[in-house]
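Write out structure tokens for LuxR family transcriptional regulator.
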Amino acid sequence: MLIDSHCHLNYEGLIERQTEVLSTARAAGVTGFLNISTRESEWHDVVATAEREPDVWATVGIHPHEADQHADLGREVLLRATDNSRVVGLGESGLDYHYDKSDRAVQQDLFRMHIGVARETGLPLVIHTRDAGDDTAQILSEETGKGAFPALIHCFTASPEFGRTVLELGLTISLSGIVTFKNAKQIQEFAKEIPEDRLLVETDSPFLAPVPHRGKPCEPAFVRDTAEFIADLRATTVADLGKLTSDNFFRLFNKAVTQASA
């Protein structure tokens, strides 16, 4: 049993054959999918996929790349978008200083707005951070001081020090196919020390296909390859890791998933 805790089923590369992609993943033992949104214009379609497929859930949110185009997005707009039983999380939101596609101050403001809605609704926030570890950690620390909120770092690529900081703040960490890459030794070592109750696994499909699928569009079925690699790192079995990460997913998203499945 495996959950792909982060995929983009409505993105080019998957949307054209979405039914086939889901069928292949289910045959590989994937029993749930969290379909992630990155901009307001795609919320409807992302949620519609979750409404159509009982093992697919959705998030609503603004990716940091899209921050400038959503600088005036009000908190009420995001809050209203969560009023759907298939929406179980917020995001992805956060900070990306690698490409700087949006003004950093705007990214930070939207990130804090997402955190506020996560705190208010109890919906977990899916966080993207790239080359922005210090500011991400500072904002998370400051916002946690205002009141707890559920959150996870998706597609973890940061330093072990950043990882330990967010774990201390109570966040969960999700590993993608990047952990299988030859140059990901630091992530591989950190993967061994993530507490059992704070670990998730994802594809971020259609991006970041794990070994041995490099060069191909990533699919949710490939979460098994990543899980097998992580299981070897942590000296366990893929079956045990699958159960562990699935249990963690349902624990983190428990309230919303329970409502969406009712």
